[in-house]
Amino acid sequence: MIHLKSQREVDCLRASGDLVSRTLAEVARYIEPGVTTLELDRVAEAYIRRHGAEPAFKGYRMGDVPPFPGTLCTSINDVVVHGIPDQTRLREGDLVSIDGGVYLDGYFGDSAYTFAVGDLSAADGALCRTTLEALLMGTEQAVGGARIGQISAVIQYHCERAGYGIVRELAGHGIGRKLHEAPQIPNYGHPGLGRRLRMGMTFCIEPMINRGTPRVTTDEDSWTVRTADGAPSAHFEHMIAVTGDEPEVLTTFDYIDEVFQSNSLLQMVPHG
Ligand code: MG
Ligand code: MG
Q1: Which residues contact 64 (CB under 8 A, 6 or more apart)?
Q2: So what's the pLDDT on residue 262?
Q3: Number of neighbouring beta carbons within 10 Å of residue 12
């Protein structure tokens, strides 16, 4: 069942979306060769708690799988999503998807961005750019009366035209008082199919796009999802509300863009 949100609930989700957007930008300040994903995780957790919220992913349960231990999902290169923060150090040329979740005043926020560590290869840069473009093209379809399939189809068309593999096993999702609600928003599909969007629907669109095969495997830790062929993968995620004739994006990458315009912001990562 899809829960349609009141204006007040959309306001709450907008606040959660803003906080998770600011959290990703805070993490962005520390992304450089040598930093560990666990250090990034601590930056995010401290930031979220300092702003009166809780990390949404920490302790998250999915079936009988052990609870997710991190505040962030940190997914490097061939890891598609759900990478667990650890002592792994980022290296020049890596791409790293940072997926953050917050729980603020009863409502969840969820957003992801794939960062370049130093300079990316041209091929990896193109993968990130195309995935981000696909997300933005998908968000443009999110208006009342449109079908979910229209979002799915534009993402699929844009990424497959570039020769990339679209992960089928994972999808975007409704969001609200629960982190994952109905409906699912697949990253592939037919424009004429799927539910029609209605006022008050709130959901995440999150293309997960591979440079090679669409197939994925899951590590023994039950979380880490990797490409089956070891090729890199990119992932971007926005939260959307259907509130009128224009799509309303509840998250923003503007704060991240601000970080990269300023080159004096890289600071020492606090330890402990
Ligand atoms: Mg996410
Ligand atoms: Mg999500």
Answers
A1: none
A2: 56
A3: 19
